[in-house]
Amino acid sequence: xxxxxxxxxxxxxxxxxxxxxxxxxxxxxxxxxxxxxxxxxxxxxxxxxxxxxxxxxxxxxxxxxxxxxxxxxxxxxxxxxxxxxxxxxxxxxxxxxxxxxxxxxxxxxxxxxxxxxxxxxxxxxxxxxxxxxxxxxxxxxxxxxxxxxxxxxxxxxxxxxxxxxxxxxxxxxxxxxxxxxxxxxxxxxxxxxxxxxxxxxxxxxxxxxxxxxxxxxxxxxxxxxxxxxxxxxxxxxxxxxxxxxxxxxxxxxxxxxxxxxxxxxxxxxxxxxxxxxxxxxxxxxxxxxxxxxxxxxxxxxxxxxxxxxxxxxxxxxxxxxxxxxxxxxxxxxxxxxxxxxxxxxxxxxxxxxxxxxxxxxxxxxxxxxxxxxxxxxxx
Length: 379
Ligand code: MRU
What we know:
379 residues; four-stranded antiparallel β-sheet; globular; binds 5-S-methyl-1-O-phosphono-5-thio-D-ribulose
């Protein structure tokens, strides 16, 4: 049985969202997560004192979003090391918990490499565990800085693309403080525009089937005082047709060497709509999301999730029990087959720009992407 339990509600009403932290409780160190399956109805923390608990939290999307998965993976390795568990086994379990977001493997690799290096140097188990934890803290701190840099680069880019100001931005899934040590990726750019008085409206795709837009992005936008409107994913087309969208801003789970972008299912149709309506389609992601080993978009492994996420309304935030374990209300006939890929892949030719902490890639080509990655301090 995984060692995972809930603690009291976190303080509501503050803008800073503590999505994940390392905590040294007297009985055990722990990775403490804001349980995202319960938002927006409840702010409940999940305390993971071992790796199986953290893996379960990753798989049920209690913790989610590419950068935060990297941070969680790194702390998970540290947790195994500090508690004296098998670090290699833990690293393997964490890295394979979800297949698409490359940041998860990146965070795990950083912490396990630090651990191995210290262990190989004969430093002893305690020092090796301390090295893993220090590396996890570094991954976390770098994400805070990357997030701030992406927000600034993204704001500058919006100024160039949309010189008139008063932006109406459409976003998909959730890309804010809930997926980051800082303020996130795409939503951090929208937040920067809001603070600069440049955001007229944030259009929030609900993001079927797990509603990361309606539940999480709207929650963050409301806390930040942004002017936002939630729409059903299928309503985006008529919004474009009505001329109500100036730019699309999304995040990414993995960017292949050819610039193809894997992101939450429903992103690719937005890219097609944006091209048809001549609206910029901008991806915001740290260079840790770029996977130069994956040569092209078609090679990206797309996670397939349980069909009942589509055929049932699970409403875990109301019913409790997590997205996967929730008791769903059927919305399709018993036994209906469901197609439920968690992500889709948008080819580079539909992407106007990729905003990273190390600079903006536009036009999106293999060469320019590799150049930006080569100047990143953290790759
Ligand atoms: O399945 P999820 O909720 O983990 O998917 C998250 C997304 O697709 C985000 O858009 C992506 O991770 C970018 S967040 C910076």
